[in-house]
Design a protein that fits this description.
Strand content: 15-25%
Structural class: alpha/beta
CATH architecture of the largest domain: 3-Layer(aba) Sandwich
Mean pLDDT: 93
CATH superfamily of the largest domain: NAD(P)-binding Rossmann-like Domain
Distance between the termini: 52 Å
Number of domains: 3
Low-confidence stretches: 1-20
Helix content: 25-40%
CATH topology of the largest domain: Rossmann fold
Number of strands: 18
Largest sheet: 6 strands, parallel
Strand order of the largest sheet: 5-4-3-6-7-8
Number of helices: 14
Bound molecules: L-homoserine
CATH class of the largest domain: Alpha Beta
Shape: elongated
Length: 458
């Protein structure tokens, strides 16, 4: 059978790149479990882009089965009319026509059962599940290897950015020394709106919830859990370590106020939720936290719900990746591309599978405590104003051997809840924490002081 587009140009060699023999006997069967945002996007791409996918593969990806609780009432792409539909995922993982199961349910309970059952039935698995992969992905990979099947998870981090492929293959010859990412689109949207419009986090969050950009329970995003799962996966790929999520220092964006952007601007910085990993001679330091980053850096230009990852390699130096972090179609592309990669391997019978964690074996070294991190700090206070406050705070910093760099205050603020900021020259996180602890006891503080690192060298 030929898939022929006669209008396409003939290459100089005379070889018609567009004339590809598509052997329908060789098609690889896919089962999709979960038809939420990502599942629907995946299905739409598999239907609409089927010919292009077949041109690239030389065989077709056939959607053999699809499962969702509402599968019988859902409008599905007409091109996929003949596929088997069920509300029971067990019928997908045991379906004889399914060779690859796409687990697009999310969460860690049913998703885990689906993946385990798929592996028992010797079906390869493609998943978008960052939480499950961050919690126990390496163990699932071990079971997949023993069962002789594949496991792929490109869609689990930064939906539309092929960052797994980059770390696993594109720059695998390098040694990553640092990685900084904006990995949560909801937080980035909230922070950039606060910055542009000078409005509170609560105002933007409520708007985003009304528009469906933020979840009704926003904690996973704004408290950092979503970004932390993603950093666990990137840390495995980049640094070769199996990290327990709770070992990563995590702080969300709830405490960021519009005034922080005003002071940050005076310092030629902005505020972003930064997921950072850096190799040190004693181990890696990992954190998810809001930070001041220089306004001139490429990461500071990442606006709205976009994601970005900046990687520094020992040999290849800087590379930067940017795109949608979520969304039905960008994430659907990641799932479909994984399906294609796994299907190719099934067709060619390759016994050599590249670990989705980019390393044959992951190390089990714990990340270093954030207390060892050194950087300059931005400190923001709210006080009930009276004489001597700055002298008192400066005294606490001096006693910890922390050198004060600048004091920033804007006119016209309420003296009963007066905001102002200080910056401190590079010091350890431990010293800053001790200073903040002492400062928060002072009776003129109207809230606990906020300390954000000022990330240099991005
Ligand atoms: N909720 C995530 C975000 C997308 O806001 O980036 C899915 O991980």
């Amino acid at each position: 059978m030929f898939l022929n587009r006669p209008e396409a140009p003939v290459a100089e060699t005379g070889y018609r790149r567009d004339v590809v023999i598509i052997n329908f006997m060789d098609e690889v069967g896919v089962g999709i479990v979960g038809l939420g945002n990502v599942g629907s996007g995946t299905l739409a791409i598999l239907a609409e882009n089927a010919d292009q996918i077949a041109l690239k593969l030389g065989f077709r990806l056939k959607v053999a089965a699809v499962c969702s609780r509402s599968v019988h009432s859902k409008q599905l792409p007409p091109a996929l009319d003949g596929m088997f539909r069920t509300a029971d995922w067990r019928e997908v993982v045991t379906h004889p026509g399914v060779q690859i199961v796409a687990e697009l349910v999310g969460g860690t309970t049913v998703a885990s059962e689906i993946i385990e059952a798929a592996i028992r039935n010797r079906k390869s698995v493609v998943t978008a599940n960052k939480e499950l992969m961050a919690d126990c992905g390496p163990e699932i990979w071990d079971r997949a290897i023993h069962a002789g099947i594949n496991l792929a998870m490109e869609a689990s981090v930064c939906g539309g950015i092929p960052i797994h492929a980059v770390l696993r293959e594109g720059i695998s010859g390098d040694r990553v020394v640092a990685l900084y990412g904006i990995l949560n689109g909801t937080c980035n949207y909230i922070l950039t709106e606060m910055e542009k419009r000078g409005v509170s986090l609560q105002t933007v969050l409520e708007e985003a919830q009304r528009l469906g950009y933020a979840e009704a329970d926003p904690s996973a995003d704004i408290d950092g859990f979503d970004a932390r799962s993603k950093l666990v996966l990137l840390a495995a790929l980049a640094f070769g370590e199996k990290i327990t999520p709770s070992d990563i220092f995590m702080e969300g964006i709830r405490r960021i106020q519009p005034v922080d952007f005003l002071y940050a601007r005076q310092l030629k910085h902005t505020v972003r939720l930064i997921c950072g990993g850096r190799q040190t001679p004693h181990g890696i330091i990992l954190s998810v936290r809001p930070a001041l980053i220089p306004a001139s850096t490429i990461l500071a230009g990442v606006q709205g719900p976009y994601n970005a990852v900046w990687v520094k390699g020992k040999y290849g130096e800087d590379t930067f990746y940017y795109g949608w972090g979520a969304g039905a179609r960008p994430t659907g592309v990641a799932v479909v591309s994984d399906l294609m990669r796994v299907a190719r391997e099934i067709r060619s019978g390759s016994p050599e599978r590249v670990s989705p964690f980019a390393h044959e074996r992951l190390g089990e070294n714990k990340p270093l405590s954030i207390a060892y991190k050194r950087s300059a700090y931005y400190l923001r206070f709210r006080v009930n104003d009276r004489p001597g406050i700055i002298a008192r705070l400066a005294g606490i910093l001096a006693a910890k051997n922390i050198s004060l760099e600048a004091v920033l205050q804007l006119p016209g603020e309420d003296p009963r809840d007066l905001p102002f900021a200080m910056t401190a020259e590079p010091t350890s996180e431990q010293s800053i924490r001790e200073a903040i602890e002492e400062m928060s006891q002072l009776d003129f503080m109207t809230e606990t002081p906020l300390a954000l690192p000022m990330e240099a060298g991005l």
